[in-house]
Amino acid sequence: MAKIFVSKSTGEQVPFLRGILEQSLVSAGLSFQDAYGVAQVVRDDLENVAEITSIDLIDRVAKLLGKRFGGKVRHAYETGAKRKQDIIVRSSVGEAPFSLDILTRSLQACVVDKVEAQEAGRRVHEMLQKSGYKEIDPITLQGTIYRCLKDYCSIDTANRYLSWQKFEKTGDPLILLVGGATGTGKSTITTELAYRLDVVRTQSTDMMRQIIRSYLAPHVVPTLAFSSFQAWRGIPAVRAALSEGGMDNPVVAGFMEQFAVIKVALEATIARAVQERQDLIVDGIHVLPSELDLADAKQKALVVPIMLVVSTKNRLVRQLVKRSRDQPEREASRYLRHLDDIWDLQSYQMKLADKADIPIIANWSVEDTVGVILNQVSARVSQRYPANPSALG
Question: Among 90, 202, 226, 307, whose Cα sits 20 to 30 Å from the Cα of 178?
């Protein structure tokens, strides 16, 4: 990693941090996206550089800005870079530099709209710089952010921010459960949610199923040898009833038999995350919150269940075809042959979710769906951890 001499007289060195450079670039007038792109280029250029002085780094960045955005932006950056930009957030447990990148990502959870969160973060940073703060305590910082959100966004957004801060201070873990049938886009949505919510630990029930299959003999868990919509093939009684015409929906029966095996691992995974006070997102077709024992988890964590669906069979077909292009090993034709079975499973999941008042969210686009889910999470946070603006003084 490249090192930067920040003081020739003392020889003090600090690592190059892309986020810090992004802050100075935003201060020079770049958008968040442009600042991120320039900082990424600089980081890539420095990958094989052992050391570089702060003066040489500024010069390198300035030249790049001049080529891409012109002399005005270059001058703004060079002028700002010569001033000390870091604002130290100091509390009883330690200190850390204010990070625009971290603030923006945290705001995305409560502001929801990514562009609005980026702009709000930029305005907060600008307000802090104009205030002349060199050091700031967490309460004063929260007050500044609250006022900025109230003026730029809305009082509701500002209060959601305070609720999130209150929630994070408790140390209670967030357990987000994302269920949905095959082809509803659970993995894609979960990946984006993990980034927006800064959740490191994620798990899929597909992985649980694979692990269980690896250490239990097939005759012990026969349904796990088949996909969720063909699990009935692993149950002789179901096959017999089907052949005799004595079962209305073997697909659901087989799936629930499969769920019963995975349920134990799923509940244990959630319990461990709660015990360790670790945020967790679980996704998968076997995520049936209404059928899980979550009483203890709901006492010690914020548990938010979601059921992801697609609205029409035609849309499900498009989702499955698109997925096969991105993941060739999940060839679409096999799933399309069982389209009706997959649709039946989704209908069953929706019935369970509706009965348990679990939000059912139609996945139309990644950005919109993530926004709706974040709204659900934020609403639960605000309900359980109500904002208290008067505590800001």
Answer: 226
Q: Can you tell me the distance from the alpha carbon of 388 to that of 393, in angstroms, rounded to the nearest whole number?
A: 10
Cβ neighbours for 356, distance < 8 A, ≥ 6 positions apart? 289, 290, 305
Beta strand pairing call for 360-362 and 280-284? unpaired
The conformational region for residue 94 under phi > 0 = left, psi -120 to 50 = alpha, else beta, is left
Point out the residues of the chain with pLDDT beneath 50.
1-2, 5-11, 83-84, 240, 244-246
In the structure encoding, which two tokens stand for residue 87, read together? 């604002």
Condensed to tens digits (0 to 9), the pLDDT of residues 213-264 reads 888 767 777 777 777 877 767 776 555 455 544 456 788 888 888 898 899 9
CATH 3.40.50.300 fits 174-384, yes or no: yes
Nearest to 179 by CA among 212, 228, 225: 228
Question: Which residues lie closer than 8 Å to 309 by C-beta, 6 or more apart?
Answer: 180, 181, 184, 346, 349, 350, 360, 361, 362, 363
Cα dihedral 110, 115, 120, 121 sign: positive
* pTM (2 d.p.): 0.73
What angle do helix axes 155-170 and 366-384 make, rounded to 10 degrees? 70
> Is the Cβ–Cβ distance between 118 and 104 less than 8 Å?
yes
Rg (CA), the chain: 25
